[in-house]
Design a protein that fits this description.
With 109 residues, the protein is mainly α. 80% of the residues lie in helices and 0% in strands.
Length: 109
């Protein structure tokens, strides 16, 4: 099952960490567009791993892994954006960016 995969577990953890500031941070929470994009980008990482796994680990699985890798970049971009517009602190941005960056390096491009 996909939830046995360590890479899926890490991706799922990332989504949980991103959801917290998206729901509790007053700036992100009040900007419905960025809040929605922030949350979607975070969950797409593990969504694509799970979806690809269901294709029985064939070539489609690797295609979905590449899409997940792209989603790691997308969430990092969104983190940098909300930091730049001062919705989150630099410390929080660094903390949130680290895991997607590391996860994105764990498979070939």
């Amino acid at each position: 099952c996909f939830d046995d995969l360590m890479i899926w577990q890490k991706a799922h953890d990332i989504a949980v960490k991103i959801y917290t500031p998206a729901e509790k941070n007053r700036y992100i929470k009040s900007d419905f567009s960025i809040k929605d994009q922030f949350k979607r980008a975070a969950i797409l990482i593990s969504d694509n791993i799970a979806e690809g796994f269901e294709y029985n680990k064939g070539p489609d699985f690797y295609r979905f892994l590449r899409i997940s890798k792209g989603s790691c970049g997308e969430i990092r971009n969104k983190i940098l954006f909300v930091k730049r517009v001062k919705f989150i602190s630099e410390v929080l941005a660094e903390s949130l960016s680290l895991e997607p960056e590391v996860l994105g390096r764990q498979w070939a491009s």
